[in-house]
Amino acid sequence: MTDSRTPPTAPAEDERACRAYLNLVAPGCDPVINRAIGECGGIAGAAGAIAGLGIALPGSLVARVRALGGRDGIGRAARLAAAQGRRGVRFICPGDAEWPASLERAFRFAALGVGDRAGECADTAHRPVGLWVAGAALATGCRAAITVTGSRRITDYGHDTTRRLVGGLSRHGVAIASGAMPGIGHLAVSAALAAPARPAHPAVMVLAGGHDSIGDHRTRRLAGQVRACGGTVVTEYPPGTPASFARMLARNRLAAALARGTVVVEAPEACVALNTLRWAGIVGSVAMAVPGPAGSRWSTGCHRAIAEGAAQLVTDWRGIAELTGVADDHPRYHGVCGHTGDRSGVPGEYSREELAVLSVIGTQPLTYRTVCAATYLPPAQVTRALVNLHARGEVDCHGVWWARPGSVTDRATTAGGGCGSRSNPIALGRQT
Fold first, then answer.
1. Distance CA 133, CA 60 (A)
2. Nearest residue to 353 (alpha-carbon basis) of 328, 331, 318
3. Rounded to whole angstroms, how far apart are CA atoms 224 and 227?
4. Pick from 305, 258, 248: nearest CA to 277
5. Beta carbons within 10 angstroms of residue 116's beta carbon
6. 0.85 cut: is pTM over it?
7. Which of 208, 274, 303, 315 is the most exposed place for a label (fewest CB within 10 A)?
8. Which of 182, 181, 222 is nearest to 203 (CA)?
9. Residue 180 class from Cβ within 10 Å (0-12 exposed, 13-18 middle, 19+ buried)?
């Protein structure tokens, strides 16, 4: 498997045009488009087949193909992307220098089908065909990012807690990612921009519609501030696409995948923010929640997530940093709570957690619970190590079993199920 740190190869312009076309035909992550890519041999084959109506499509997509000009649609998409680029909104693709490695790692992990409740989201747990980006390079902000989300309604407790968490993370070089939702999401981004010692890339704002279709004036103003302060505004929806509830839920998948971890500060039962937490489990990001005051109905969703093991309990920025390793390479973090840096001279630049996991996974396959017990590491740190090691090809996943490549035994394939198993070895609190 290719190392996630391998320098990317930029896609050819014809592939970029095909990706832009598929994005226009079906904005967001459409299962029809994903199936077409698989059945038609890739991006170019899918774009050509769809433009020529050579495959069966739902009526809504047929109408969209015709509206884009049929076979001329691919050229039209290329011209639109070029025009948007002149306006400061660029269309980026996998292989571009600013395409985040975190997306590749997250959706490779999601494809294993072993994340929390992964089977329920198999049709949408795919990386975008492309992204529309404004502001600083997206990959820069996602190298060390934490998604912060929560309720639209903020209590004094939620306000103070969010500012305290974000302030501590920002001071230690961490970018704050969030959806463009009023409430905790807006507050987290605003606090990141206002931090006295913020990083050069302070925030990543993820939209649920096109850049030109931000309806709320506060969100529109905040997006402008993010760009002006060196951050990035990103969406998988092309220009002219209005935000909707369904797109908001799909946006949550992107917000979780871009960051190393997701923190929910305040969320009542059935809050949309809990959907982002769910996506964090699917894509292998660290899911975290802040407990609220006893009896507060604005934190019941957080309390349930913690109680059921769907989220790790955190109360300050240090806890977030320890679970995710997000500040490990930042000089201000060295020495805090005895921390000496995560990758200081270790062989192959493995983190301490990765070395610990590699030391226990040998020729015999192990379950996730066994790895946790043998390494004495918190589940979230084991999850992060397994995600990173799998992305680099150092470990393989076979059903509920983890093993070194080439060391799979009959035990792994018969007792644990095949590689396509929907078993869930790393659902925190429900380990196998």
1. 26
2. 328
3. 5
4. 305
5. 24
6. no
7. 315
8. 222
9. buried
Please give the pLDDT value at position 329. 57
Q: Where are the alpha helices (DSSP H) in 288-418?
A: 300-307, 317-324, 352-360, 368-375, 379-391, 410-414
DSSP, collapsed to helix, strand or coil, labels residue 43 as helix
Looking up tokens 């996974």 gives 361
Segments of the chain with pLDDT less than 70:
1-11, 113-123, 327-348, 408-432
Nearest to 275 by CA among 256, 303, 297, 300: 256
pLDDT at 172: 92
For 343-414, the fitting CATH number among 3.40.50.300, 3.40.30.10, 1.20.1730.10, 1.10.10.10 is 1.10.10.10
- CA-nearest of 417, 399, 178, 384 to 281 is 384
Q: Where are the beta strands (DSSP E) in 105-167?
A: 131-135, 145-149
Q: pLDDT tens for residues 319-330?
A: 999 888 886 655
DSSP symbols for 362-397 = -SS-EEHHHHHHHHT--HHHHHHHHHHHHHTTS-EE
- Quote the pLDDT of residue 342: 41
> Which strand (E) or helix (H) includes residue 23?
helix 13-25
The domain segmentation of the chain, as residue ranges, is 1-84, 118-324, 343-414
Residues shown for the chain: 432
CATH 3.40.50.450 fits domain 118-324: yes
Q: Which amino acid is at 204?
A: V
* Residue 359 phi, psi dihedral angles, 5° rounding: -70, -25
* CB-CB contact of 142 with 175 (8 Å): yes
- Residue 5 is predicted with a pLDDT of 41
